[in-house]
Structure to design on (545 residues):
């Protein structure tokens, strides 16, 4: 029996070596610019940096390497003779930190951007050259082929982006405010009735909004079957490995490897969980089609698109948008919106628990604006700026996707005297940007006041740009997510206290701060007490739903 694993390993090893030889032979990097590549740690001659970059949390290593392997700088002293001649004396050399790093992963060029400036200069200002994605073979196997997040540059990407952006602009999402207010009140009332189940209730809130917007679904309980769709799809996506970084992504032919050779690999994970992505796209869509036929469908994005599709079909016109496109677009709104909102709620509650001064200041501001005889609504938002600061600080303090989904350069480019090859996989290191000490004072501290304008006595530090991406790949649902978060957080602050949990002896249980790994990150479970601030607050909520 021991011979079989050895034989399997030998076969896999030979396949890898053969594929790698072909890859190196025909796809070796060519640099005719005469410029150096960005700096980076030493590479192995055969594997490049494949064994250097850690699989878990590489964003921290990128920050460290940016400081260690910077650009060489000449230290010189300029003097002038009595005759006015300019004399430059070289005193030595030093190394300055680099915000751009280069890696060779099995022959593939990889560039990491560690600063907002580098990301803006390349991904925003040169967006046409960096709007592409690398091919995500593993996610194709999983079933994410028609999702905006992973689509390659081209007409299909442009179509999906326009479709989603049109429905989620800052002005377009105003029509969803009544839904957000109602769902926030339902959620907080649910927490009052069942405080130990607060994390499941906040997950329901997050999913309820995007499911209603995308598919017209009403989530009326914490055990609704569609919540399991969200959980399964999120688990499938975040536990298969980082995008474009698994062996299948480097060698697409490996996606045909049978399961007996792919034991406990990302490929096996993708195959085992493919059903979750299929269910996410098919089940809500099939139910919506059924409701449309029965005349009971609620207004939603998918219904509008289906009506437009049917009208064009009836007229015999060409449909640029297929049924699969509609499923993919609405599925993207579902999974991205639900997970982002829920994760950030956890981050907000965790930090309000650990920073009681922030909690008290926020509650005082809400009390002053809203009073005690009504619940907050979106008309209060302009006067409750501090709550928006808390949301933005949560985005910065724990960026949900520390490395984001990578871009791909279409053509050769140069930046700061460095060569960036065509076909490079480009990572924007949101973690590095959000903790940049040249921008944020004491970045590890959760401090919403850092955003207060200077003329009001604050530091006027900028909102973090990294968490929602850059350029033509920026997340189109960022305004919707921020609005949903503001609404539920304001409702919680107005009606509830966030207190440390206690054990059976009445001693406080300190919260454990741990963030999950993978494509997206969220706090692991922590203990907390959520208690009504008053009997009046309980009655207000109960009477509002």
């Amino acid at each position: 029996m021991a011979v079989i694993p050895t034989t399997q390993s030998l076969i896999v090893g030979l396949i890898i070596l053969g594929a790698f030889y072909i890859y190196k032979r025909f796809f070796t990097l060519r640099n005719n610019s005469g410029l150096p590549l960005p700096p980076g740690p030493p590479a192995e001659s055969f594997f490049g940096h494949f064994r250097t970059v850690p699989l878990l949390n590489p964003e921290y290593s990128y920050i460290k390497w940016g400081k260690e392997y910077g650009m060489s700088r000449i230290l010189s002293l300029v003097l002038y003779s009595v005759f006015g001649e300019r004399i430059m004396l070289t005193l030595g050399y030093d190394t300055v930190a680099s915000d751009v790093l280069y890696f060779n992963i099995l022959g593939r060029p990889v560039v990491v951007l560690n600063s907002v400036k580098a990301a803006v200069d390349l991904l925003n200002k040169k967006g046409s050259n960096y709007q592409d994605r690398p091919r995500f073979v593993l996610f194709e196997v999983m079933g994410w082929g028609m999702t905006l997040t992973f689509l390659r540059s081209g007409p299909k990407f442009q179509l999906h982006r326009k479709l989603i952006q049109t429905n989620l602009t800052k002005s377009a999402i105003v029509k969803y405010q009544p839904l957000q207010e109602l769902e926030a009140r339902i959620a907080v009332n649910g927490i009052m009735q069942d405080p130990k189940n607060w994390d499941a209730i906040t997950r329901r809130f997050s999913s309820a909004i995007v499911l209603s917007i995308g598919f017209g679904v009403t989530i009326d309980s914490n055990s609704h079957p569609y919540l399991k769709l969200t959980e399964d799809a999120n688990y499938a996506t975040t536990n298969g490995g980082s995008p474009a970084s698994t062996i299948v992504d480097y060698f697409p032919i490996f996606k045909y490897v049978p399961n007996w050779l792919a034991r406990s690999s990302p490929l096996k994970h993708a195959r085992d969980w493919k059903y979750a992505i299929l269910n996410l796209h098919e089940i809500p869509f099939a139910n919506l089609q059924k409701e449309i036929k029965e005349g009971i469908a609620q207004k939603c994005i998918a219904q509008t698109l289906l009506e437009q599709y049917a009208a064009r079909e009836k007229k015999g016109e060409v449909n640029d948008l297929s049924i699969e496109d509609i499923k993919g677009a609405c599925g993207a709104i579902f999974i991205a919106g639900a997970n982002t909102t829920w994760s950030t709620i956890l981050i907000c509650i965790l930090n309000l628990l650990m920073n009681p001064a922030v909690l008290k200041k926020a509650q005082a501001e809400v009390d002053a604006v809203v009073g005690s005889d009504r619940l907050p609504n979106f008309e209060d938002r302009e006067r409750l700026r501090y709550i928006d600061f808390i949301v933005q600080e949560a985005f910065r303090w724990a960026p949900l996707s520390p490395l984001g989904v990578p871009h791909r350069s279409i053509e050769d480019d140069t930046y700061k005297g460095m060569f960036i090859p065509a076909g490079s996989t480009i990572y924007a290191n949101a973690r590095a940007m959000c903790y940049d000490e040249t921008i944020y004072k004491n970045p590890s501290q959760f401090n919403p006041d850092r955003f207060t304008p200077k003329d009001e006595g604050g530091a006027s530090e900028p909102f973090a740009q990294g968490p929602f991406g850059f350029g033509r790949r920026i997340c189109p649902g960022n305004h919707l997510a921020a609005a949903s978060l503001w609404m539920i957080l304001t409702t919680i602050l107005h009606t509830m206290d966030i207190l440390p949990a206690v054990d059976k002896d009445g001693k406080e249980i300190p919260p454990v701060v741990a963030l999950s790994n993978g494509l997206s990150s969220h706090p692991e479970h922590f203990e907390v007490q959520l208690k009504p601030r008053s009997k009046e607050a309980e009655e207000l909520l109960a009477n509002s739903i």
